[in-house]
Amino acid sequence: MPIEYGETQMATYPNHSPLCFGIVKFPVLLLLIFCGAALSAQTVEIKLVDGRNGRPMVGSASYVNVWVGAERKEAIAIPTDGNGVALVKLTPNTEEINIPNHSGDRGSVVVDNPVVNYDESFRINAPYVLCGSGGSHSSWLMSEHFLTKQILQQGYVSPNTCGKVTASLRPGQVILFVRPLTWWEKLKQ
């Protein structure tokens, strides 16, 4: 018996317009895109800004100490670039990690652009006085705690009690307003 081919017709649904299916497909596509992005490595940009004048904190002594999660006891010291920016890449893939295994017998590990295991939280400390809510007279040893998801979605800009400089939130970016230590603060350390 020969097979006959007819015209192909699109299935029709009596009370649904073709636009309805397009509206349903779009949110599903967005959900798939965002879920895929969450499973890949994501970069957090940490920017140190002089709260007095808005200039980036740069130079050989400009870095941030970062602790991702509670697994590592020693800090990851990340030097800032010419724009006062230090980058840390968070990945769920352990094969991408580029920092040495932690060891109890050494201090911090210095790594440019480290790739670390993703965790729900991280801490940052800088060798400057934070111009945050504790005022510009708070301890320079203080560290800021962050939720990774919140930073990746919204970003963070610290308060600035050292001057009138401001900045805008940007997803994936942490901006810390800081100032150098005074000679007296350096003497006390």
Explain the overall architecture.
By secondary structure, the protein is of the alpha/beta class. The protein has one domain. The protein has three helices and eleven strands. The longest helix is centred in the first third of the chain and has 22 residues. The protein is globular and about 45 Å long. The relative contact order is 0.18. The mean pLDDT is about 80. Keywords: Membrane, Transmembrane, Transmembrane helix.
Outline of this structure?
The chain crosses the membrane at residues 16-39. The protein has helices at 18-39, 148-153, 183-188; strands at 42-50, 63-68, 76-79, 85-91, 109-110, 115-117, 121-125, 129-130, 144-147, 156-157, 173-179.
Supply database-style keywords.
alpha/beta, transmembrane helix, 189 residues, membrane, 6-stranded mixed beta sheet, transmembrane, globular
Give the topology, please.
Layout: H1 18-39, E1 42-50, E2 63-68, E3 76-79, E4 85-91, E5 109-110, E6 115-117, E7 121-125, E8 129-130, E9 144-147, H2 148-153, E10 156-157, E11 173-179, H3 183-188
Parallel strand pairs: 1-11, 3-5, 4-6, 10-11
Antiparallel strand pairs: 1-4, 2-3, 2-7, 7-9, 8-11
Transmembrane segments: 16-39
Keywords: Membrane, Transmembrane, Transmembrane helix
